[in-house]
Request: fold
Amino acid sequence: MSEQNFCYKYPHPSVTADCVIFGFDGTTIKVLLIQRGIEPFKGKWAFPGGFMNIDETVEECAKRELEEETGLKNVSVEQFYTFSDVNRDPRERVITVAHYALVKLSEVKGGDDATSARWFSMDEVPSLAFDHDRILRIAVNRLKERICFEPIGFELLPEVFTMTELQNLYKAILEVTFDRRNFYNKMLKLGIIEEAEPRPANAARRTPSKYRFNAEKYAELKQKGFRLEF
Amino acid sequence: MSEQNFCYKYPHPSVTADCVIFGFDGTTIKVLLIQRGIEPFKGKWAFPGGFMNIDETVEECAKRELEEETGLKNVSVEQFYTFSDVNRDPRERVITVAHYALVKLSEVKGGDDATSARWFSMDEVPSLAFDHDRILRIAVNRLKERICFEPIGFELLPEVFTMTELQNLYKAILEVTFDRRNFYNKMLKLGIIEEAEPRPANAARRTPSKYRFNAEKYAELKQKGFRLEF
DNA sequence: ACAAAAGTGTTAGGCCTACACCCATGA
DNA sequence: TCATGGGTGTAGGCCTAACACTTTTGT
Reply:
């Protein structure tokens, strides 16, 4: 079973897809890693990912590998950079198309201990396999850039959330603090979030209002040339 | 010489790099295409690009192919998307890492007719080979997004330029018209362009002032958290 | 003489920022 | 009772956007 049946006139690289999956626990950004069970880098942590089949796109590959290795299904991944350093894999020439996705931690079934997947806070991420340290750095940069101009933060939050949670999310990603009142005003003025349920008249003072992202409203505003900004 | 000496246990795709090269003639955005001399798509226009060698990165490949096919040297290319549709090349499975670059038309030596390369205005681009129509669409989108937040427009202009030329460039890319006075004010207030030479006291009224982009100033401002916006 | 290019300033409105206090809850 | 979390409004400054006329040159 070690036959080598696929032959070419010129050497071909292998192609892999890797997934940087971000989550948010209400306080800090988390990233999903798996512990490698085989060489190279056995025992080290890495992003879910693997070799592309000849009859699938890299995005399909990313989703397939993600599900195989972590059980996460139906995640909408987006490629962000292709890493092609000549020696990035010690086995053979491998280029990888890195993807990222944002998931709601609340919807990930807890402790699927059939896999070796684990969530790490950004500040506890260990040194990673291959060039995955670099991939993570670049993924985080993309996330920061992207959240400034697109409402992707909501993908990390539950359907319904409080304004404080939303603010903490922006704080965690952008690493800056916002004035609470200004943040409220700005968010509400944008017109892309709405109150999830009317606040009961007799609500206790400390009960926060709940909001929900309105994707249709956003699409409509965007078409009119509206631009989100942070 | 049709031996197939590079054999693998699993099928491997080929990897190519393609280059979308933008220029600006003072009025419209141009893109550099080459006419294919061989099948498939013989006679059709396509982006410069070609197969990656096993000992080079995709960026190196993009630059090498660009020089081989068009004579353009020392161009700083940047990858923007990896296209991996299964049937995008009729010969075999090929994924391509698309790059783009902005060049000063004034510095490209005219009419290198040893090559089949030609500049096309955006509105005269013919139907292209492979999935290059789609690649162009996405490249143009990236260019639009990018020029809103980074001073890349200057890469398309000569070292020294007039405010009107700069405004025409923004108009050509973003397809919106700016009020001339507001454009002047905004650009000058940003602090990233400077007068190239003091306007002679006796300059005729119609002689435009010349400006130059100040990259150091921009780097300095950027470090202080300044953000460009259009 | 007429069309085209370039230079120039003001105003009003909207947005951003900074800032402080009260109430209710849970420890 | 004390610390924490949550809700709420205003004023000043800055930026943006809208807007018109004059001069000169080339045709």
Summary: The radius of gyration of chain A is 21 Å. The longest helix of chain A spans residues 132-149.
